[in-house]
Amino acid sequence: MKLIAYLSNGYPNLEESFLRAKRYIENGIDIIEADIPAANPYLDNDFLKARIKIARQQTVNYEEYFDAILRIQNEYPNIEIIINIYEDTIIEMGVDNFIQNMKKINNRTVLLAGTLFPDVREKLVNAGFEPSSFVTREMKNEDIELAKNSNGFVYLEGFANPDKYNENYPTLKDCVFKVRSVIGKDRKIFVGIGVHTPEQFKEVYESGADGVFLGSIILKQEDNLNKQSQLIKKLKNISIGQ
Description:
Layout: E1 2-7, H1 14-26, E2 31-35, H2 46-58, H3 62-75, E3 80-86, H4 87-93, H5 95-104, E4 109-113, H6 118-126, E5 130-131, E6 133-135, H7 141-149, E7 154-157, H8 172-183, E8 189-192, H9 198-207, E9 211-214, H10 216-219, H11 225-239
Parallel strand pairs: 1-2, 1-9, 2-3, 3-4, 4-5, 6-7, 7-8, 8-9
């Protein structure tokens, strides 16, 4: 199972976020989820919104964020990178401009936030990119259908209020099995949201997911980098069945 670390690109500045990416990779992270800071990150929690706001106070030039990602790639050519971006930001940039920036970093994998502008997804797919789809623990038919008809990875919600869980798929393993039956074995299922403890992390591993997003579980350890490094290494061991 791959470890995917969220990188607040540009927080508190581009140099510091580059150094954070280095620490992640050197401690065993497999994939970097690098965000392109949005003007209105309406789907993010308050903790991440604050970081995104600070990043945008440094620069609102989106090409600088892509240059920062290219720097990571040049330093670590074997690392996978997922580009986290809102539909609104792509529209603000211009779809063609976004596509050119993605080609500059030679990347096709997009964690596409939002479902308000389906034409954005369509244009990306037609241009050869692989935007993600999102499935919550409610396992709504429309979400499953979008996942089926998409070509990117599926972002599956890990843990939420149990009252919202679909009674037909009560466990995370049930959800992974259902999504897998719909999308096939070649596309990836990455689990995120609500993964706050090593115990929850182990449940993700046992569910059969291909990867797990690490957000606040490691971000909130930044005041103690040694502790953060040890946690990443511990999670790495779990992810390989140790």
